[in-house]
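Handout, page 2. Input:
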Amino acid sequence: MENCKSKVQTSAPSPKLFLDAYKKEGDVFVVTLSSKLSGTYNSALLAKQMYLDEIGEKFIHIIDSLSACVGETVVALRVNEYIKNNFNNSEIIASINKFISEMRTMFVLEKLDNLVKNGRINPYMAKIAALLSIKVIGGAKDGEIVMVDKARGYKKAIARLIEIIQKDNINFEERILGITHVQCLERAINIKNEILKKVTFKGVVICEARGIASTYAQKGGLVLSY
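Output:
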């Protein structure tokens, strides 16, 4: 994929895959990639309507994470926590919506090639960034990708990212720090250790990227959510 010059293509899961999952016993909560980045959310909604039309009533709630990668993991873990604490479904929906509105997602990528190929980043700006060894610190705002800051070189970008996290005005001890890495576990462990020197999270989860996450974050990329 790194040697491919053409546009990179990905596809959302089909409604049938969701429908098959909905047929299992119990209430259903679905956590998807941001609806502004993928058709996954709409596939899940369509499958819900198909289930209600073809099979009958059942509690199925689709959650738009407004994030990606480990952001979805962090949301799913929070939903699981609410369930274990015996929240009813209405309480879970209200609580998770509030959590998502306050959740942070940021990233530092080694390469921007596939984001450029698919028109998600200006190719001229990406070329200038590469020539000057500028690393972009990106983030999610209302489910869309935005630039948070930039720095010369990867190490400075990571140091700046940690500074941004440290200055965040939230209760870290009530949150889990999630880290997605693309074939760079050592980097993920290092940034976890550096962050924990500055702030205390309730827990940390590290995930290796798969599918669409590895397509766009590319080798060496890190995505953080909390």
